[in-house]
């Protein structure tokens, strides 16, 4: 059985639409079920990342505000 990979993508300092575009690109390199943690400072990411997941079949496992921005935990969909 294949183990699930965990990847962190630090997108702090990038502005819309770059966080979503770089998240999409990172997910293309992962297998279904793999986890991706995305770190952002762009306020729009709070809307854009969950919307991107819903539109593209990925699972948003967690979204939390941090002192500097947001942390999103995703699982790649099939």
Automatic annotation (TrEMBL):
Domain of life of the organism encoding this protein: Bacteria
Record-annotated UPF0033 domain positions: 9-33
InterPro entries, per the entry: TusA-like, TusA-like_sf
Bilayer-crossing regions: none
Family indicated by similarity: Belongs to the sulfur carrier protein TusA family.
Name of the protein: Sulfurtransferase TusA family protein
Organism encoding this protein: Roseibium salinum
Organismal lineage: Bacteria, Pseudomonadati, Pseudomonadota, Alphaproteobacteria, Hyphomicrobiales
């Amino acid at each position: 059985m294949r183990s699930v990979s965990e990847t962190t993508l630090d997108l702090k300092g990038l502005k819309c639409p770059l966080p979503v575009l770089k998240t999409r690109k990172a997910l293309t390199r992962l297998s279904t079920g793999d986890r991706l943690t995305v770190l952002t400072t762009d306020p729009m990411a709070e809307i854009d990342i969950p919307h991107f997941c819903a539109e593209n079949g990925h699972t948003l496992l967690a979204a939390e505000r941090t002192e500097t921005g947001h942390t999103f935990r995703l699982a790649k969909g099939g």
